[in-house]
Write a structure and sequence with these properties.
It holds the Pfam family DAO. Helices cover 28% and strands 27% of the residues. The chain has 373 residues and is α/β, with parallel strands linked by helices. The longest helix has 17 residues.
Amino acid sequence: MGVDVVVVGAGVVGAACADALSAAGLRVTVLDRGPLAAGTSAAGEGNILVSDKEPGPELALALSSLALWPSLVEDFDIEWDSKGGLVVATGDPTPLERFAAAQREVGVDARWITPVEALEMEPHLTRRVTAAVHYPQDAQVQPVLAAQALLAKVRRRGGVLRPGVAVVGLDARGVHTTEGVIACEHVVNACGPWSGEVSRVLGAPIAIAPRRGMVLVTAPLPPTVHHKVYDADYVGAVASGDADLQTSTVVESTAAGTILIGSSRERVGFDESIRVRVLRELARKAVALFPALADAPVMRAYGGFRPYAPDHLPVIGADPRVPGLWHATGHEGAGIGLAAATGALLAELLTGATPQLDPKPFRVDRPGVLLCA
């Protein structure tokens, strides 16, 4: 028996697409070659941010997603934490001030505060802070719980979830998998860092590559960090396309009392090795921002792969080369935060509804994204 849509990839972006499509009345099957929500989503910090995005299409997508997330998962406990963000400068504050001013012009709640006010919000911050911006809209979720909540809604509507099933081809009969052919009208490639590989299997390659990131996790501590706090240089690292290692200071707590310390970005393919030099750099920068962490015991470290697009914008929409093929990928480290609006936009485009956001910046056939088969 056929379905309307096969969504390939059961991370948070694939789950959000499946949720929006099934809510629109379509019959949906979700495939993943591994367990559900066990890839990039399981390795993320769960950030839902507007603070790190300059005015433009990605910020518009982030603001839309921020508005959608609470209603999408209101019946589930996904450990939603409206902690807010704090971006601090320890040098010349002018670039941060200009960045925040531009964000305010497009609707971001970016509150310029003094070093004294920053220390009142985060008493353990370094005294070298010269200025800061408070972003009350920033939030955090537990990403695996969020993805599972969305997939549970798909299942309630009659959708089918099939973990452990890989896609091996696509033709007029439907999607070819390791467990047979699934007849369908549409296929959504939502495979995160593996979207480039899967796009080739589907006959329409796109330029999505993995970008590795690592995180340190401390043992549970007394209340030490109260917001998502990062140095102003984090914004530059997010927007950079440099293949070499980049680190920037990001520190935040979890509900369990542990402290997450990031972040790193490095294009090393799918190399999963733990790089001690990266962890040392993360620790050094975290202690510079929060000196009280100098003696904090580290409980573990983990890494994951982000789906990197050459122009740092998600790829959302129909592939012009293969009828019925759609892509929802390329969110890099912002997939959790952008997932809700990505699913909504993809469903609007696929069903012919009027999109609430301009889809052109995310189109598949933009320069640098399409590759030759």
